[in-house]
Backbone:
């Protein structure tokens, strides 16, 4: 007899419906699995066999053919186990219930228990869009699945529970819809613990307010990393849509925590030995999202920027501009979102002491230039704010005077973002402005133009910096609630081009 | 460009790879330079080894007229003007040093050689605030002197930048004019050739070698009426220039530094020995009896004045400036950027600023 059971396969961040067709024929007992399965899918035979046996069902000693249709889409992972097991049960008439319209997802353990799988959220979203409404999936994925409204999700702990549910013996209750609560405040790093560094803190606030990328330049041990870790705490809370997008990516990557949904802005810190593939996404079998996609709607922190491979850094240029990355391999192309804020840090010179008040820099100008030339102009061009972090004196560290809390800063950031939301009528920020928006929203007065021209002449800025400076000035004006960009906004923005005119 | 007989003889002589002493000896033996060619057979001794081979080449070059023609044509193509010690433009001051260069290969405005000249030299490791001061002084001095310096990064480059605007800049190189060193100053070299003057003692193809730099320094010292040393440690090459200038009877000036400064210990030593302590332009001009009505006033806003006066003697941290001026850090940042543009302060790295002009 023939049976058909629906499951879903993941390609990139999208799901494709997969029909598990099972046919049982008389003949020498065998098990044939077709439809471009990878090793993990092929191995399902042993899992399904044991799971059926240990759930009190029979694995037929007949010729079994399982076809995962469409046959030309590569199937990966263990997500089809449940669908295959249910298909065999139906084909052998051990289960009579009607399974049409139900999507089965889940991996089987040998004892018949259901194990959670990666990528549930994107699968459900695609399936919902394709018109599916009923889902049976592992209990371990329940919280992740609960955030999608308008579908019925049944979470089962074992194959036995699934069978009992389908046959109506012990129906499961649908998983209640989860309510999204942003957990943005839970960041354990707070600006209040960073002593001094007034300029750097101000620059951080500007950067977050306008979604600008930032480069922290300073000697070792001055708190660059500490400052960077505070960024998520001053970023606005994620909306549900943003959280869902992030969760999708993290789900595919298999790094989702037990919470089910990512409710805090991600903060990713890949080490400088990271390869281009790990940064941008890719992989030999399934195309996995890279660090820049995992940092979507959050912060990508690159500590010691010049130490990264040049090719890795150059690969960031296009996603920094577009907010997405398309990873292309011979097996196909996948587009991952990658709209992140880049925060990078570096030393001012090879010995690290350039500009230090009490330590002597031993580097020659040529050595400093060589060190800095590791960063290409086009990459630096995409970093709107470059700010110096200076060494902290012991007295400052030990002082009891209270610094501003992240919460307070966050409130101001949110206000600035609100102005931008009204301006662009979507989630774009000042940093995303193109030439047209620049013209429309950043008209400069004569005085501002003059100051800008003067700064280019006297501070030897590169011409490419112009639109960057205007964008940052726009953000500073927004932070003040000013309609027009004023000279002092331009001047402050100019002061954030430290790298350009250093040394 | 027409050269006299003597000049041509000098250019011919200098085009061969003989060391300075040998060339000088030949000149002395020939009595008059144009006799060199005529009496070459008698003058050039038969020697074994490298020198002998050069002598043979010199003799064979005399047989054909093409050698000299080709040489002059190639210099003209490279826009090089040769000023020999028998030329009219050759600076008198330089002639009086013990070992005057035989030929100066020049590119640019040769007339600068006849103007009053003053040298500014500094080491490669020079603090940001000193660089800004150097540029400022160089700019001021270039109103009455042609500024003579090298082309190294740091102090020399700052002096070049200051004087470049007026075009009164003479950069003395320690290598032939075909080359570019340091590579980062390629653009600057072009600008000097266009507006000022590049000078080298060496034929255009000569590559730079470490030992050529002290020899070059004697030209810087010899050309100038005085030398200002803006920076330099105990072992800096700037001390060679200063010592030579002192020996040639030139005035030596130096910026003072704090006790224990690594970048300025050499300057302090110079001041102890013979240099004149120099803090501003007038310290130099008064020594030459020049009265420069200087310092165009800069207009400052109230806040800028506050910020400027809050900066101490040494580079001051921005938060200290903000505290002293009673302003917020972000508004001080704005003031400082403006002041930087008005060239009243300079950023020394690490969010520290130094005042180079007081209201």
Residues:
């Amino acid at each position: 007899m023939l049976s058909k059971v629906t499951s879903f396969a993941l390609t990139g961040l999208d799901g494709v419906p997969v029909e598990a067709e099972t046919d049982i024929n008389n003949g020498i007992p065998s098990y044939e699995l077709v439809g471009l399965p990878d090793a993990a899918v092929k191995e399902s035979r042993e899992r399904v066999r044991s799971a059926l046996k240990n759930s009190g069902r029979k694995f037929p000693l007949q010729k079994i053919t399982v076809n995962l249709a469409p046959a030309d889409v590569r199937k990966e992972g263990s997500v089809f186990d449940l669908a295959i097991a249910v298909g065999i049960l139906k084909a052998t008439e051990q289960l009579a219930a009607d399974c049409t319209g139900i999507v089965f997802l889940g991996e089987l353990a040998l004892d018949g228990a259901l194990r959670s799988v990666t990528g549930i959220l994107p699968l459900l979203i695609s399936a919902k869009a394709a018109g599916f409404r009923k889902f049976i999936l592992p209990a371990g994925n329940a919280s992740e699945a609960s955030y999608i409204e308008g579908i019925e999700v049944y979470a089962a702990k074992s194959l036995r529970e699934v069978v009992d549910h389908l046959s109506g013996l012990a129906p499961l209750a649908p998983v209640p819809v989860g309510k999204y609560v942003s957990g943005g405040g839970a960041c354990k790093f707070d600006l209040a613990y960073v002593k001094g560094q007034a300029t750097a803190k101000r620059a951080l606030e500007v950067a977050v307010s306008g979604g600008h990328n930032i480069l922290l330049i300073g000697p070792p041990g001055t708190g660059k990393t500490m400052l960077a870790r505070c960024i998520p705490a001053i970023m606005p809370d994620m909306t549900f849509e943003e959280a869902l997008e992030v969760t999708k990516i993290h789900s595919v990557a298999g790094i989702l925590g037990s919470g089910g949904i990512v409710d805090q802005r991600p903060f990713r810190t890949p080490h400088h030995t990271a390869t281009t593939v790990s940064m941008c996404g890719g992989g030999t079998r399934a195309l996995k999202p890279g660090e820049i996609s995992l940092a979507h709607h959050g912060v990508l922190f690159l500590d010691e920027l010049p130490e990264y491979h040049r090719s890795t850094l150059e690969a960031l240029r296009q996603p920094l501009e577009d907010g997405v990355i398309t990873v292309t391999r011979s097996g196909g192309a996948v587009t991952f979102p990658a709209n992140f804020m880049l925060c990078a840090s570096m030393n001012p010179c090879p010995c690290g002491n350039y500009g230090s008040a009490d330590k002597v820099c031993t580097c020659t100008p040529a050595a400093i230039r060589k060190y800095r030339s590791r960063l290409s102009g086009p990459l630096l061009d995409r970093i709107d704010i470059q700010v110096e972090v200076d060494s902290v004196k012991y007295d400052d560290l030990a002082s009891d005077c209270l610094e501003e809390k992240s919460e307070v800063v966050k409130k101001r950031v949110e206000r600035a973002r609100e102005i931008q939301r009204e301006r662009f009528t979507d989630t774009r920020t000042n940093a995303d402005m193109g030439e047209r928006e620049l013209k429309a929203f950043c008209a400069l007065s004569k005085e501002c133009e003059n100051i800008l021209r003067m700064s280019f002449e006297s501070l030897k800025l590169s011409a490419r910096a112009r639109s960057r400076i205007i964008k940052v000035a726009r953000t500073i004006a927004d932070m003040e609630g000013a309609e027009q960009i004023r000279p002092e906004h331009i001047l402050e923005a100019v002061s954030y081009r430290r790298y350009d005119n250093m040394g | 460009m027409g050269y006299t007989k003597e000049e041509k003889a000098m250019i011919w002589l200098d085009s061969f790879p003989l060391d300075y002493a040998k060339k000088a000896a030949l000149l002395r033996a020939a009595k008059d330079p144009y006799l060199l060619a005529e009496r070459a057979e008698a003058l050039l001794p038969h020697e074994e080894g490298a020198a002998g081979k050069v002598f043979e080449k010199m003799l064979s070059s005399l047989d054909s007229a093409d050698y000299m023609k080709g040489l002059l044509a190639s210099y003209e193509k490279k826009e090089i003007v040769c000023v020999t010690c028998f030329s009219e433009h050759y600076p008198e001051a330089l002639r009086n040093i013990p070992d005057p260069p035989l030929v100066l290969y020049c590119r640019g405005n040769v007339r600068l050689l006849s103007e009053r000249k003053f040298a500014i030299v500094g080491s490669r490791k020079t603090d940001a605030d000193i660089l800004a001061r150097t540029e400022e002084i160089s700019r001021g001095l270039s109103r009455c002197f042609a500024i003579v310096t090298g082309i190294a990064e740091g102090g020399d480059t700052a002096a070049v930048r200051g004087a470049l605007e007026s075009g009164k800049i003479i950069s003395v190189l320690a290598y032939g004019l075909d080359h570019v060193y340091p590579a980062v100053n390629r653009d600057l070299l072009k600008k000097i050739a266009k507006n000022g003057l590049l000078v080298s003692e060496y034929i255009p193809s000569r590559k730079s070698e470490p030992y050529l730099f002290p020899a070059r320094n004697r030209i810087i010292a010899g050309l100038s009426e005085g030398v200002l040393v803006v920076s330099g440690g105990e072992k800096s090459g700037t001390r060679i220039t200063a010592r030579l200038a002192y020996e040639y009877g030139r005035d030596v000036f130096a910026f003072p530094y704090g006790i224990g400064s690594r970048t300025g210990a050499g300057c302090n030593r110079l001041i102890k020995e013979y240099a004149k302590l120099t803090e501003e332009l007038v310290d130099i001009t008064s020594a030459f009896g020049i009265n420069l009505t200087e310092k165009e006033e800069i207009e400052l806003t109230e806040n800028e004045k506050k910020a400027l006066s809050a900066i101490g003697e040494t580079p001051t941290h921005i938060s200290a400036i903000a505290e002293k001026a009673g302003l917020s850090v972000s508004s001080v940042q704005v003031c400082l950027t403006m002041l930087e543009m008005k060239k009243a302060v300079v950023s020394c790295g690490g969010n520290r600023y130094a005042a180079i002009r007081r209201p």
In short: The interface with chain B takes residues 196, 198-199, 202, 218-219, 348, 354-357, 360, 364-366, 369, 388, 390-391, 451, 454-455, 458-459, 488, 491-492, 494-495, 498, 501-503 of chain A (CB under 8 Å). Chain A has three domains: 2-167, 188-407, 433-503.
